[in-house]
């Protein structure tokens, strides 16, 4: 890690001064779920968007309170809808410094906004709730994350069952835990930083597919889900897909999830597994295929203190890819990804998180480095402060020990892994 002198970062000093001196005032408008329930954001989150036990139950029950009359069906007969329109918005802004300038790219960059999102989020009819996010990322405005779900209750052998149907556009966005790609740490990071060239396919189909599936939680212990996805490309991609398209799924792609959870005293633990198996055309909508199988395991642990809570998340994804070269010849590639983070959230709004990431795999010509290997390793640290439950100020540092296959000269231009270390300050407002 290179020495960091404050004098080298005049933009950072200015932003810190602004954040310390600006009078934001008491935020009275809170996100739509809080307005819907009358509860504070802290009722569902340790630190948004990470869910606690109540938040997971809220989401699994169709974005409605578990004990609400509409969820139990008592209000179904009169056909009433919810009394308020479930609208909300958020904005993220960031300042980023990269340890060594990327050639022909400005360093010490400011993004305002880095992301601006509008949400239609909440219970909209008895048993049906939504999380619909449309975002502007500084370049274009488009559909981001969608999870529309129907949920109800039943019982088997006097054991309670929560069951439902999810319609979503991003594998794992429907998941209630914070271990899988859509919601794991870091939930927000700088778009200006340099990142490794390769990641698992389950991380890269958001907003490009539509999935319909069913899930069930038995006795608040065993969770199961099966969802199938079909290409439904958005944004700059053409829909329906044509010969110019990329990342088009052939047929449907199955996703499955199994998790066990248990809460005792002030402790909570979850152990799960998941998988995703798409076949994706190398280009267009016909021709050679890339056949992926992603298999993963994950672990989550939480402990509540009188002054706050600590949470731990871990996940491992093993990806196998069969990449067709001709009708009779194919290459087999492997890719493994490990993620871990542990944090402490205090009731005074201060939070600290430390994590590491590690990936390794076969030589891949699509990884543009001298070794063509996707091996990367590093650490992430984040210090955050929530002056209000809907406002987050965070300082995040990413440190690389290895980048795209090696420590030194990975790009054959004398750039090292440590040159991509980045410092990012973010402000995130929800209203």
Gyration radius from CA atoms, angstroms: 22 Å
What percent strand? Answer: over 45%
CATH homologous superfamily? Porin
Low-confidence stretches: 1-30, 69-79
Provide the CATH architecture.
Beta Barrel
Could you describe the largest sheet, including whether it forms a barrel? 16 strands, antiparallel, barrel
Q: Order of strands across the widest beta sheet?
A: 3-4-5-6-7-8-9-10-11-13-14-15-16-17-18-19
Structural class: mainly beta
- CATH topology group: Porin
Overall pLDDT confidence? 87
Description:
The chain is mainly β. The chain has one domain (6-430): Porin (Beta Barrel), CATH 2.40.160.10. The protein has helices spanning 10-21, 32-37, 53-60, and strands spanning 45-47, 50-51, 87-98, 109-125, 128-136, 141-156, 159-168, 209-218, 222-231, 253-264, 267-276, 279-281, 289-304, 308-324, 330-346, 350-361, 376-388, 391-402, 422-430. It is globular.
Brief sketch in words of this structure:
This protein is mainly β and 431 residues long.
């Amino acid at each position: 890690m290179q020495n960091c002198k404050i004098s080298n970062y005049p933009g950072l000093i200015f932003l810190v001064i602004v954040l310390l001196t600006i009078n934001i005032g008491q935020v009275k408008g809170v996100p739509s779920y809080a307005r819907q329930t009358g509860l504070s954001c802290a009722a569902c989150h340790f630190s948004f968007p990470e869910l606690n036990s109540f938040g997971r139950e809220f989401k699994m029950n169709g974005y409605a309170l578990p004990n609400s009359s509409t969820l139990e069906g008592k209000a179904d007969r009169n056909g009433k809808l919810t009394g308020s329109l479930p609208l909300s918005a958020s904005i993220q802004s960031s300042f980023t410094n990269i340890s060594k300038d990327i050639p022909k790219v400005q360093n010490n960059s400011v993004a305002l906004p880095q992301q601006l999102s509008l949400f239609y989020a909440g219970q909209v009819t008895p048993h049906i709730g939504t999380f619909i996010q449309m975002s502007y990322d500084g370049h274009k405005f488009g559909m981001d994350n969608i999870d529309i779900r129907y949920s109800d209750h039943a019982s088997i052998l006097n054991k309670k069952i929560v069951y439902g149907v999810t319609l979503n556009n991003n594998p794992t966005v429907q998941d209630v835990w914070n271990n899988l790609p859509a919601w794991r740490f870091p939930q927000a990071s700088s778009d200006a930083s340099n990142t490794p060239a390769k990641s698992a396919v389950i991380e890269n189909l958001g907003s490009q597919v539509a999935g319909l599936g069913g899930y069930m939680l038995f006795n608040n212990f065993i969770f199961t889900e099966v969802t199938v996805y079909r290409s439904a490309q958005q944004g700059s991609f053409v829909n329906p897909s044509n010969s110019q398209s990329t990342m088009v799924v052939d047929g449907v792609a199955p996703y499955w999830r199994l998790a066990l959870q248990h809460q005792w005293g002030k402790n909570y633990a979850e152990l799960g597994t998941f998988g995703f198996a798409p076949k994706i055309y190398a280009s267009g909508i016909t021709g050679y295929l890339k056949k992926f199988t992603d298999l993963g395991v994950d672990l989550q642990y939480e402990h509540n203190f009188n002054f706050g809570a600590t949470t731990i998340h871990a996940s491992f994804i093993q990806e196998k890819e069969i990449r067709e070269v001709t009708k009779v010849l194919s290459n087999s590639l492997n890719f493994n990804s490990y993620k871990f983070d542990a944090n402490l959230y205090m009731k005074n709004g201060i939070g600290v998180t430390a994590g590491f990431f590690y990936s390794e795999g076969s030589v891949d010509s699509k990884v543009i480095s001298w070794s063509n290997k996707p091996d990367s390793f590093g650490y992430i640290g984040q210090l955050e402060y929530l002056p209000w439950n809907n406002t987050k100020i965070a300082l995040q540092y990413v440190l690389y020990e290895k980048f795209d296959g090696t420590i030194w000269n990975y790009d054959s231009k004398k750039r090292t892994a440590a040159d991509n270390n980045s410092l990012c300050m973010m402000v995130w407002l929800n209203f």
